[in-house]
Amino acid sequence: MPDDSLTVKDNRPGKTYEIPITDGTVRAIDFRQMKASEDDFGLMTYDPAFTNTASCRSEVTFIDGDVGILEYRGYPIEQLAEQSTYLETAFLILYGHLPNKQELEEWTHNITYHTMLHENIKKFVEGFRYDAHPMGMIVGTVGALSTFYPDARHIDDPESREMQTWRLIAKMPTLAAFCYRHNRGLPYVYPDNELTYAGNFLNMLWRMGETDYKPDPVLEKAINVLFILHADHEQNCSANAMRAVGSSKTDPYSATAAAAAALYGPLHGGANEEVIHMLTEIGDKKRIPEFVQKFKSGEGRLMGFGHRVYKNYDPRAKIIKRTAEEVLDLTGRNPLLDIAMELERIALEDEYFVSRKLYPNVDFYSGIIYQALGFPVEMFPVLFAIPRTAGWLAQWREMVVDPEQKIARPRQIYTGDRGLKYVPIGKR
Ligand code: ACO
Question: Alpha carbon of 5 to those of 9, 12, 23, 349: distances in Å?
Fold first, then answer.
């Protein structure tokens, strides 16, 4: 009997099975051989919300949630946030190594020269109502890009995958900025190829009459750090959506629209928006204990706290807290930061949060920075979607060439009726 195996006795027929353990994992399909009778379908595993199921092998991102470690391709997030730029980190995530000088130049060139949007996309954005949620606009328009690039459907062609990767990473900030300016009734600003990825994004958002827009270096750095921190997070809800939708061999724009739609939800990318609403509602440090009591009794959740994987301080939250202080030194103190810091202190001393291992996640402080930068809350998930596009694409590219992957299609435990007799409407 090999050491790395599981001995399972199925008490129904009284049979014993040897299930191999590889990488600390058993294969769910190995349980199918266990049958109560000859015509039984075989045993399935039940794992709603995939809380204990690995859906793929991946080399992109490593997380140790118990200790609070996050690494992209083996590099700790703290080092990347400190020393890298978003575009360099995106390259690392997509291609598995830090680029050398020439690779970085070529990569930067390719991204920079695909930042323009087709003029019809501009009209598409104009078609939304003036107060349309920008994330809703992103979901719609990024999906619409597939109609502009029909070559994207050739997902088995590495050159096509490469081209769509450049286009998506390049165009997301432009799309986001157009959506933002649409909400404000401002004319769209076209990309400026002289600026960095982050600098150009700020230019497209905030340029007014200036002929020579110069982004503030502190804000440009803050955007870079935020983008690096949000670039990937292994098999989260939106990455899983990207992989699941992409597994039907749809084009990457449609799969990205699905991933963005997943990110839109308040339990995922929408959480930082909820954090701002929560902090605003609390309004005063004196009211924190009253709110903490509510959260503990199940009346709402302490938004920005808790994580499916991190049962320790989210390493991104630590970096963001520092960045928030740097940005607020420039833009002026936001009273919400003081409420957030006090709320964190109180929660981390409270038995309810301690025993459930609920710590601040990436969203707890990110909204405060976004607000200090002047973004309305509706833009928060969009600011998450831009950098996460690199992660989604890295996950998608890995999935497309993985011989073990097939169309994602879970099983179910059917709990409904069977074999009913159709009753005409007049007799119901
Ligand atoms: N406030 C209060 N209680 C909480 C919170 C919270 N934020 N999060 C979890 N709990 C409690 C639950 O009520 C549950 O308690 P119980 O065991 O007494 O029933 C226990 O902690 C475990 O919670 P689950 O919901 O089982 O944890 P799960 O892993 O499913 O959820 C999630 C993770 C969705 C992130 C959750 O912690 C949450 O809702 N947090 C607030 C929303 C948020 O900040 N989301 C951002 C996540 S990070 C990201 O997407 C970028």
Answer: 13, 21, 11, 42
Residue 363 lies in a domain: yes
Q: What is the number of structural domains in the chain?
A: 2
Do both 30 and 162 map to the same domain?
A: no
CATH code for the domain of 366? 1.10.580.10
State the pLDDT at residue 345: 94
Q: How many residues does the chain have?
A: 428
The pLDDT of residue 268: 86
Residue 142 belongs to some domain of the structure: yes
How far, in Å, CA of 6 to CA of 17, rounded?
8
Q: From ligand 1's centre to the CA of 297, what distance in Å?
A: 13
Identify the residue whose C-alpha is closest to ligand 1 atom 50: 268
Nearest atom in ligand 1 to 237's CA? 50
CA of 401 to the centre of ligand 1 (A): 34
215 and 297 in a common domain: yes
Instruction: Examine the domain organization and report whether 148 and 22 are in the same domain.
Output: no
Task: State pTM to two decimals.
Answer: 0.93
296 Cβ below 6 A of ligand 1: no
Residue 425 belongs to a domain: no
Q: What is the pLDDT of residue 391?
A: 98
Residue 388, classified by CB atoms within 10 Å of its CB into exposed (0-12), middle (13-18) or buried (19+), is buried
Report which DSSP code applies to 22: B
**247 & 295 share domain:** yes
- Are 28 and 156 members of one domain? no
The C-alpha atoms of residue 22 and residue 150 are separated, in whole angstroms, by 40
Query: Do 183 and 313 reside in the same domain of the chain?
Result: yes
**Residues of the chain below pLDDT 50:** none
Tell me, what's the pLDDT at 305? 93
Confidence (pLDDT) at 31: 97
Distance 356 CA to ligand 1 centre (A): 9
Pocket test for ligand 1, best of 307, 359, 364 (most atoms within 8 A of CB): 307
Expressed as residue numbers, the domain containing 289 is 61-401
pLDDT number for residue 2: 67
Q: Answer yes or no: is the C-beta of 356 below 6 A from any ligand 1 atom.
A: yes
Ligand 1 pocket member 271 (CB < 6 A): yes
Report which protein residue has its CA nearest ligand 1's atom 13. Answer: 298
Cα–Cα distance measured from residue 85 to residue 121, given in angstroms and rounded to the nearest whole number: 28
**Other beta carbons less than 10 A from residue 183's beta carbon:** 19
Question: Strand, coil or helix: what is 360?
Answer: strand
Tokens 């001393």, located at residue:
349
Q: Which residues pair with 7 in a beta bridge?
A: 18
Say how far apart CA 141 and CA 134 lie, in whole Å.
10
